[in-house]
Amino acid sequence: xxxxxxxxxxxxxxxxxxxxxxxxxxxxxxxxxxxxxxxxxxxxxxxxxxxxxxxxxxxxxxxxxxxxxxxxxxxxxxxxxxxxxxxxxxxxxxxxxxxxxxxxxxxxxxxxxxxxxxxxxxxxxxxxxxxxxxxxxxxxxxxxxxxxxxxxxxxxxxxxxxxxxxxxxxxxxxxxxxxxxxxxxxxxxxxxxxxxxxxxxxxxxxxxxxxxxxxxxxxxxxxxxxxxxxxxxxxxxxxxxxxxxxxxxxxxxxxxxxxxxxxxxxxxxxxxxxxxxxxxxxxxxxxxxxxxxxxxxxxxxxxxxxxxxxxxxxxxxxxxxxxxxxxxxxxxxxxxxxxxxxxxxxxxxxxxxxxxxxxxxxxxxxxxxxxxxxxxxxxxxxxxxxxxxxxxxxxxxxxxxxxxxxxxxxxxxxxxxxxxxxxxxxxxxxxxxxxxxxx
Length: 439
Known about the structure:
Layout: E1 2-3, H1 20-23, E2 27-30, H2 32-35, H3 41-45, H4 48-54, E3 58-61, H5 95-107, E4 111-116, E5 120-122, H6 126-130, E6 153-155, H7 161-178, E7 182-185, H8 193-206, E8 211-214, E9 228-230, H9 232-242, H10 249-262, E10 266-269, H11 279-296, E11 301-305, H12 338-351, E12 359-363, E13 371-378, E14 381-388, E15 394-397, E16 405-407, E17 424-427, E18 432-437
Parallel strand pairs: 2-3, 2-11, 3-4, 4-7, 7-8, 8-9, 9-10, 10-11
Antiparallel strand pairs: 1-12, 5-6, 12-13, 13-14, 14-18, 15-17, 16-18
Helix pairs in contact: 7-8, 9-10, 11-12
């Protein structure tokens, strides 16, 4: 049996037209503190050939503004506590360094976006003295955090039209001066939708072909303002299944419910980012590769977080937002299968429209509680994907039509090539296989 998608409730609020280069993108998030030994823009620029060869297409640079020091957390403070929206953190370089890095990325066919944090500021942001009326206040008139636990930041009040105008002009400045390709917008869910809609219209006057990524899981943000948002529920279901042993059907059911909610809108699919304990620490090596195979053969747009592709474990216990913890690139010598796996998986996805925004149909199999099976169709092609989400091997049958299939699973993965083809399958623990239908 093949399970078809139910019609979405988002149809009456259809998303705006998204550029084709976004639909086929692979996003790479990097922390300039951690990405290179020298922790600056030149360190990023020196590794642009590496990123191009990896196959990613959009570089998301975490916040580059000076970091607040008043009420800071950790040794360095959070990059998400911004001290000056028009300045660059001196540790990363200067304006010319940023311009050169962006230009070098563009020469290699890479797009560059930066993280903007406009829901809140650091307590020593220049606006607190210049424009205290921009901030949220308690009944006594004291500036307050946007959330009681976010003690290192002060909340901004978007009921103020002057604040809105300031932020839109600031965003236009970064596009205009540095030729950026868009923004990842922190806590987009905490700012009114009508602000974002107005901002998008103004930004497109500066650069028509931009990408906007919302840190949110909110359909109305995708109607006009944003191209992508976060598929958080999908990531959490993957963890529920692969880390906590819940039924694998939870991933399928979540996918279906999200499509009913979002319709044709795009979501960013991830299993690792700067807010999470590293996926390798949560799922282990083989579980991580299986989860990566899932997001790289799913619809939406996949995200990789710096060092993930070599199996870095630097942040396996806690995210390292407040400290200077470098990605340990030499781990690639130990986990030698990781980098070839990601290169091959990204190349496979980029080569076939069916694996990007093609149709998805879930397929029943003999172990629905621990094995995911689904078809991806598009561009005249069909792929069949099987992923064992457990540490128990399985041999059985998937309810897919007979045909001839070519096994295109990356050989540098945790998967071992077997001689069976759908509908018959043999999967080891955490094993996955990808087949292209040839007849």
